[in-house]
Design brief:
Chain lengths: 152, 378
């Protein structure tokens, strides 16, 4: 059984000195610089063994922030999902890629990059995936204005 | 080893698709070849991108249902089911008993038709033009007739709702479904007699496109593809959503994780679905097909304003884990509406499975992944 979020937070902070997190509405808020460390710990610690990124996406909160949301599950222990949340500066959203930890993030991070403009440092192949090369803008941002407003 | 090099050869870059019958839609693979051998393979997608997520953020929760039909357009019912589960989680809507049964029946019928069709397509990709595919489509058509009787449409069913289903099934429908289900094993037997032990199929599919267990887990593969690699993970068992814990069924697993295992796991899953259907059709209770809260939500979608918060609802769709992530800001539209599409994520390992194989193998490896571009591109 997976511990509650508060227990998870305190045991993670114990395992990773110097990392401080917060629990917010059913999810664990991780500082952007600690994403790799926290994810590695969640994957490699036997108790958690969150070996599967079920879902990775972003939510845009203009004007100041974009949140990247991770839903992590365990195929070994069959528990989850645990929701992680990383708050980024909307003007310059950069976060470490988790693709080196979980291949499952590869296409999903590309999608977030494509539609939200979040850059994932260390991603092996960060290109647009759904929109075409040379497309400008990020269509899932709340302030995106479509080229032709009359087209549905 | 000799020091003289073989004849000078060049590598060749070839586009497979986007307009090609073997890509099951508008999907492109850029393959780098040395002779017939794959050195590199990059999938290119997005030709069918409609930004469904943005459209969903401009519509009420209920208004997205018809659009979910068009994600994985083979399996409208399970797509509806996924969104309904997510909305129920978000808004605390409970489903009526009969509604739950009808949804599970629909979802399992969908699994039958998807697996029948995809194994048919896979055999088609191997070069058996027509016969097995049409056998599969004959069965699929019978299920689609049932869907049409219940929802008014063969494929774009738009039938499942939070709290149950949109409309009760017509009189006599359950009896027809029972007959179909009792006849279905005969089709699987026939299909297996024709194919499972077929030497050509085994030659083509065994040890082709092997996906090791560790990679499958790490790459977030779900559905029959994951289970063919021997990982026991089925959202129906793990989450036990809806009323699945009430039914007895097994989760078939493969051992090698090659194309043949993926083919065979789907056959076995059809047999398990038949078991679930037999149990569900025996027990289905009377009463309303949708709970009062669900009905209110369907009748007046703009009055449904879930409290601020978020929900991630997931179901075991025929292709894998289908997840809907909803964020509410208290308005009638979702603030964020995201779909975790199984075939999109399952494509992550396409290159790994194809490396070192021949071009003809790529076609069947892609066929065994079971993609639908409406869902990949969204």
């Amino acid at each position: 059984m997976l511990p509650s979020l508060d227990e998870l937070k305190s045991s993670l902070e114990q395992l990773l000195p110097g990392v401080s997190m917060a629990v917010e509405g059913g999810s664990l808020v991780v500082p952007p610089k600690d994403v790799t460390a926290v994810c590695r710990c969640l994957k490699d610690t036997d108790r958690f063994r969150l070996d599967y990124v079920a879902n990775l996406t972003a939510v845009d909160y203009p004007p100041e922030r974009i949140e990247v949301v991770y839903h992590l599950c365990s195929m070994a222990h069959k528990h989850g999902p645990v929701t992680l949340r990383v708050k980024l500066d909307r003007l310059n959203p950069v976060v470490d890629s988790v693709t080196p930890i979980w291949r499952a993030a590869e296409f999903q991070e590309r999608e977030v990059y494509d539609l939200f403009g979040v850059r994932f440092a260390g991603h092996p192949d960060l290109r647009r995936i759904l929109m075409w090369e040379g497309f400008e803008g990020h269509p899932m941002r709340k302030d995106y204005v479509p080229e032709d407003q009359n087209v549905l | 080893m000799t020091t003289t090099s073989a004849a000078e050869t060049q590598t060749l870059e070839v586009n497979l698709g986007p307009q090609h019958p073997s890509t099951h839609g508008v999907f492109r693979m850029i393959a780098t070849l040395d002779g017939e051998t794959i050195l590199k393979l990059k999938p290119v997608m997005g030709y069918l991108h409609r930004n469904h997520e943005q459209i969903g953020e401009r519509a009420t929760y209920i208004a997205s249902f018809p659009f979910t039909d068009r994600l994985d357009y083979f399996n409208a019912m399970s797509n509806n089911f996924g969104l309904a589960i997510a909305i129920e989680k978000l808004g605390g809507v409970a489903a009526s008993e009969r509604g739950e049964y009808l949804r599970v029946i629909m979802a399992e019928l969908t699994r039958l038709l998807n697996h029948a069709a995809v194994t048919g397509f896979l055999i088609n990709d191997m070069g058996t033009f027509g016969t097995p595919l049409l056998y599969a489509f004959r069965e699929r058509e019978k299920i689609l007739d049932l869907f049409e009787a219940a929802s008014g449409s063969r494929m774009m069913c738009n039938y499942v709702r939070p709290g149950g289903v949109r409309e009760d099934v017509p009189e006599g429908w359950l009896q027809q479904a029972r007959e179909l289900v009792s006849n279905f094993p005969r089709f699987i037997d026939e299909f297996e007699r024709l194919l499972t032990d077929n030497e050509i199929l085994q030659q083509r599919a065994k040890h082709v496109g092997v996906l090791p267990k560790e990679l499958a887990i790490n790459a977030g593969i779900t559905g029959p593809m994951l289970r063919a690699s021997g990982v026991n993970y089925d959202v129906r068992k793990v989450d036990g959503y809806s009323i699945y814990p009430r039914f007895q069924f097994k989760v078939p697993l493969g051992t090698v994780g090659d194309v043949y295992d993926r083919f065979y796991v789907r056959i076995l899953e059809m047999r398990e679905s038949v078991k679930i259907l037999q149990q569900a059709l025996k027990e289905v209770p009377g009463g309303p097909a949708i709970s009062p809260k669900g009905l209110a939500l369907v009748k007046a979608p703009r009055t449904f304003r879930p409290a601020k918060g978020e929900a991630y609802g997931r179901v075991e769709a025929p292709k894998g884990e289908l997840g809907f992530y909803l964020v509410s800001d208290g308005s009638p539209q979702p603030y964020r509406y995201h779909i975790r599409a199984p075939s999109f994520v399952n494509l992550t390992v396409l290159e790994d499975m194809c490396l070192g194989h021949k071009v003809a193998d790529v076609i069947i490896i892609l066929g065994s992944v079971d993609i639908v571009l409406g869902e990949v591109d969204r």
